[in-house]
Design goal:
Length: 336
């Protein structure tokens, strides 16, 4: 029995069962799919005259007719014979190719030597290729570059700092301020500036207008009233302060110089004894501004004006003198 039609083989079992019912095939319910295909093929071939008119079975009978055509059978025979010849021909070609692959083994030795030579020359080519490529720097190179730039920046800043002379000026200022004499000048300067507002008042000069762009308000410019220098209201308090804070203490410091014996055989460092200066200033400030002892050469009004305008009054003057005396003793101890 021939194999069933390919058209039937492509159908599903449910479709085949419906087709069996359509063509009038009996006892097909318990058949397997292959058995059902064979039964349908046999039944439909046997009843071709009756069933070929059905449009649903047209594809089946076309396949059957084409399979039965003698022309197509001859074509199939030619194709199969051609396939057999093709299967025969590659065998000869394979043998010749095998021979060709076996024969040139001797001639392949130069090629191997050439390949070896190229492989030995490859590292130089790779080196030239790598050197020509601009590869990104490695992290270590980046770190080295940053360290180098940082060192250059530090060096340039250090050079600029040395050339500016700020360090030398600061050192010189430090040496100047680190003396008892500079402490005396600072104390006297504070006292004189506080007394100036009383004996030399400020007078109005002009007014700077407001600048809207800079958001500034108008500003009144004032200068010291120099005409007060012609009045006793200036010279009375100023002369009293000058005598009690500078002239008389310097006189006592010059004649009662306790550092003379300590500097024999060496260069005299102080023409005026700083300790004596501060002791004399403290005593004079207490006598004049606290007790009112003037000897008649200063008016009580001048005493009140000076004592009321210096920082701390007579107590501030005495305290400044005590601090200066302590610093003088400390300096003398360090020198020994």
């Amino acid at each position: 029995m021939s194999a069933p039609s390919s058209w039937l083989q492509k159908q599903r079992k449910s479709d085949l069962q419906g087709l069996a019912e359509q063509v009038g095939l009996k006892d097909y319910e318990n058949l397997k799919k292959t058995e059902l295909e064979s039964a349908l093929d046999e039944h439909m071939r046997a009843n071709q005259t009756r069933l070929s008119k059905d449009s649903n079975l047209e594809a089946f009978y076309k396949r059957v007719a084409s399979a039965a055509s003698p022309v197509k059978k001859a074509a199939v025979a030619l194709i199969t014979s051609g396939d057999e010849e093709k299967e025969k021909k590659p065998r000869a070609r394979r043998t010749t190719r095998a021979r060709e692959e076996i024969e040139p083994t001797e001639s392949s030795e130069p090629e191997l030597s050439t390949t070896t030579a190229l492989m030995t020359r490859t590292p130089r080519a790779l080196k030239s290729l790598v050197s020509s490529l601009q590869l990104p720097p490695s992290p270590s190179q980046v770190a080295d570059q940053i360290d180098h730039q940082t060192a250059e920046l530090r060096s340039s800043i250090s050079t600029a700092w040395e050339r500016s002379g700020v360090a030398e000026s600061a050192e010189s200022l430090r040496e100047t301020l680190s003396t008892v004499a500079m402490l005396q000048f600072l104390t006297l300067g504070i006292e004189a500036w506080a007394l100036r507002s009383e004996v030399l008042p400020m007078s109005y000069l002009t007014t700077f207008p407001a600048i809207k762009v800079l958001r500034t308000s108008k500003y009144a410019v004032k200068i010291p009233d120099l005409f007060a220098l012609l009045n006793m209201s200036f010279w009375g308090p100023f002369s009293l302060w000058l005598v009690t804070s500078i002239l008389l203490p310097l006189t006592f410091a010059y004649f009662f110089n306790l550092s003379l014996k300590a500097t024999r055989g060496r260069k005299l460092r102080h023409q005026f004894d700083p300790l004596t200066f501060h002791v004399a200033k403290a005593l004079l400030s207490w006598l004049v501004y606290a007790k009112g002892v003037t000897g008649g050469w200063a008016s009580p009004l001048s005493v009140v004006r000076v004592e009321g305008n210096v920082p701390g009054g007579w107590r501030g003057l005495v305290l400044g003198a005590i601090v200066g005396g302590v610093m003088s003793v400390y300096e003398a101890v360090l020198k020994k």
